[in-house]
Design goal:
Largest sheet: 7 strands, mixed
Order of helices and strands: EEEEHEHHEHHHHEEEEEHEHHHEE
Shape: globular
Distance between the termini: 52 Å
CATH superfamily of the largest domain: Ribonuclease Z/Hydroxyacylglutathione hydrolase-like
Strand order of the largest sheet: 1-2-3-4-5-6-7
Radius of gyration: 20 Å
CATH architecture of the largest domain: 4-Layer Sandwich
Structural class: alpha/beta
Number of strands: 14
Helix content: 25-40%
């Protein structure tokens, strides 16, 4: 459960039951006057118990503990308020903090759900996903005064480590990595994962989430990283993985475009059903509904990218958006 990954830096494995990600990598940095916990897990008993046990094993004193979040997803942010010390701070990218605050305060229809319906996702499935979606069911209850937003370039100091905030939008609009230059350590969150590819979905108010993600990958490719500490699974070769992710999405773009060319007039929901996914399901109809949600979201980010570059267009027909190649 607890593994030392560098001097005074420890990984705590937080299980994510029922989730294909399997486990969150939460990192604990032991400082001199304060400690820093990076990412927390879903707001559920299993996650809380595992993180509490890991911190107890490390002798962590809550009174001196700050929390740092790489992004707003509930598997990272869900228990931030439960593990920050009294009078201490929860740090996260300002863009994601404001977006999460808006989401938690929202009353009425979710704009993302409305878009998915307009893109062909069955209304009954949207409602069913909403009822079990950890984004709303297992996250922090509110953004209170302990939260502090970080801008690109902001620096946090803990013991011998200085963590520089790198704003890398794509996985979320305010997704951040944290660069420790002196020791060559990169806390990559979900921006760079090695065993799996980060989910890049569409976001309300973001014209081109995939384009932002690819630009963010190129932005950080040149950093002289010696050790990457990702949000899930194992680490690996930093620069080689970025090259692979860039290549992966180029192939996915080509696949999405080929589906649109072969069958013009499909909805995004139907296009996603014709794309290839690494999941144990015999057919699109057999996909678990939450995985369908992620698949359609990723399909939409690729269609948005192609639309912005005049490769495909969409037209509304019978209340649904339908796509064809240009």
């Amino acid at each position: 459960m607890v593994e030392q990954v560098a001097e005074n830096i420890y990984r705590i494995g937080v299980p994510l039951p029922g989730n294909p990600l399997k486990e969150l990598n939460s990192y604990f940095i032991r400082g001199t006057d304060s400690d820093l916990l990076i990412d927390t897990g879903f707001r559920r008993q299993t996650c809380q118990q595992a993180l509490e046990e890991g911190l107890a094993e490390l002798g962590s004193d809550p009174a001196r503990r700050d929390v740092l979040l790489t992004h707003l997803h509930s598997d990272h942010a869900g228990m931030a308020d439960l593990f920050v010390g009294p009078g201490r701070h929860v740090y996260m990218g300002k863009v994601d903090m404001e977006r999460l605050d808006t989401f938690l305060r929202r009353r009425g229809p979710d704009p993302r759900e409305l878009r998915f319906i307009s893109e062909g996702f069955p209304t009954d499935l949207v409602r069913a996903v909403s009822e079990v979606n950890p984004a709303s069911q297992e996250t922090v209850p509110c953004i209170d005064g302990s939260f502090q937003g970080l801008e690109d370039g902001d620096v946090l100091r803990t013991g011998e480590y200085e963590l520089k905030t790198l704003l890398v939008p794509g996985h979320t609009p305010g997704n951040c990595m944290f660069w420790v230059e002196e020791q060559g350590i990169m806390f990559s969150g979900d921006h760079i994962l090695f065993d799996i590819t980060p989910n890049i979905t569409e976001w309300s108010g973001v014209d081109d989430a995939l384009g932002a993600y690819l630009d963010s990958l190129r932005k950080v490719k040149g950093y002289p990283v010696k050790l990457t500490l990702p949000g899930h699974r194992k680490t690996g070769d930093y620069r080689a993985r970025i090259e692979h992710l860039l290549s992966h999405h180029q192939k996915r773009l080509e696949e999405a475009l080929s589906v649109v060319r072969a069958a013009p007039g499909l909805t995004a929901y139907e296009i996603a059903g014709k794309m290839t996914w690494k999941i144990r399901a015999n057919s699109w109809e057999d996909f678990p509904m939450v995985q369908k949600w992620f698949a359609v979201g990723e399909c939409l980010s690729h269609l948005d990218y192609l639309r912005r570059r005049d490769k495909v267009r969409r037209e509304e027909k019978d209340g649904l958006w339908r796509y064809e190649a240009i």
